[in-house]
């Protein structure tokens, strides 16, 4: 074994590497900052879809229908995420992780800034929502590649005993981006309604350009993953990573997607549908956005602690605790959101996203440890982004439809709990990966 290969193997089994080297700190910073910027852009859209896009881009529709249409554009981005995972996963597995990360960041920044410049429905008619959907799809496509690359560049550099913690830096970008997006949008929502709907909401989207430039400065200094550099790419050159995953690991892919859906349904319920439903019931929009900032802090702290615990006790026990807590809190959360009271909504979203953080912390490492190096980017990305499309992208639409049906809240709660239980079953079928050597997974 060559010196480089031995070094990569030692990193994967956790005996010789440290998270405190200058390069490792740069890698973790890149993973966190890049993911935070991407999710700032992505979640900014989610908040704006709940509060702004209905009257701005679907002004001719009934308000309730306009909200559903706005959520449909939100879902379009989630649907694009698996496609981004497939395409960028292919190049990430073939050409390397680093190049993908630079490309996805630029793509996301441009799309987000253009949303901030879009004319409204009253200015250009139906072309406005069509352009909005197009840019949302580009956002989703970019995030589909970003998460896998940011997570793997950290995980594959890290010592085995700290892989969960290192991989969590990509996941920590999600609550950090949510904090930033909700905080900035909340600040501008203090403006008079007419000014906010006219131009105030656009400024947070345009600020994405500044964030992307900062992220690129850090990301361009990161070195390629050692496991990618050392694995036998010649043997894999003629193989298509997507086909390899679908033919050799179909069950693992399905089960990994199911586990990831557990935290992403919480995201859809608490962060998107909950925000829209609560404000419709009378919760103050600015207070609701501030509550989302608090909930993102809760998710950030919970994810960080859960990732640490997963390195000690394993991924499965920690994720199982999160899913169990979500089942117990499902109905209480729905009742709190439906109350129309400011502080009830705050409790619902803070506790709900705190529980989400317990699952999110170990999830990146959990998914990555299911697949070999040659297809790890593709496999982990499809699982996570497929769960995003199903669990988060369509949850707000499904929740709104179930609430409007004869079954109402009891039916919505029952369906959500059933989905969480199915996710828990999948969790206990797949193998525990925290002690596996990444270099030897086949």
TrEMBL record:
Coiled coil: none annotated. It is found in: Cell membrane. GO terms for cellular component: plasma membrane. SUPFAM superfamilies: MFS general substrate transporter. Residues 27-434 form the Major facilitator superfamily (MFS) profile domain. The chain crosses the membrane at residues 32-58, 64-88, 100-118, 124-144, 165-187, 199-218, 251-275, 287-306, 318-337, 343-368, 380-399, 411-430. GO terms for molecular function: symporter activity. Its main location: membrane. The keyword Transmembrane helix applies. Keywords: Cell membrane, Membrane, Symport, Transmembrane, Transmembrane helix, Transport. Pfam families: MFS_1, Sugar_tr. It is a multi-pass membrane protein. Belongs to the major facilitator superfamily. Metabolite:H+ Symporter (MHS) family (TC 2.A.1.6) family. May be a proton symporter involved in the uptake of osmolytes such as proline and glycine betaine. This is Putative proline/betaine transporter.
